Target: Helix-turn-helix transcriptional regulator
Amino acid sequence: MLLNKNSYVIHSRISHAKLTFKELEVLSLCKKGLSCQEISDLLFISLETVKTHRKRIIKKLGLRGKQEFRQFIIELLKEDLIREFSISP
Model:
C-alpha cells in the first residue's frame, strides 16, 4: 500500500536523521503551521535559534532548502489526514 510505504519512508528519514529533542519540537510546531517567530515566542528562544534549528533539520533530513522542507511538512500533514480519515478493519 502506498500510504504504508510513504509513511515508512518519512518516519525512517526522521529517525535516521537523529534529530535532537529541540529539533523534533521545532519540526512538530512547523507541522502545526507556526511561523519561526511564533515558535520563538512559544519556546522562549530567540528567532535566530529557531532558524538554526530549522537549518539543522533541513540538513539532517537531506533536504535542499526551505522549499523542500515545506514539501516535507506537507507530506507529513497528508499522512496525518489519511490516518485520521482512514477506516480501520
Notes: The chain is about 75% helix and 0% strand. Residues 38 and 47 are 9 Å apart (CA to CA). Helices lie at 2-16, 21-31, 36-43, 47-60, 66-85.
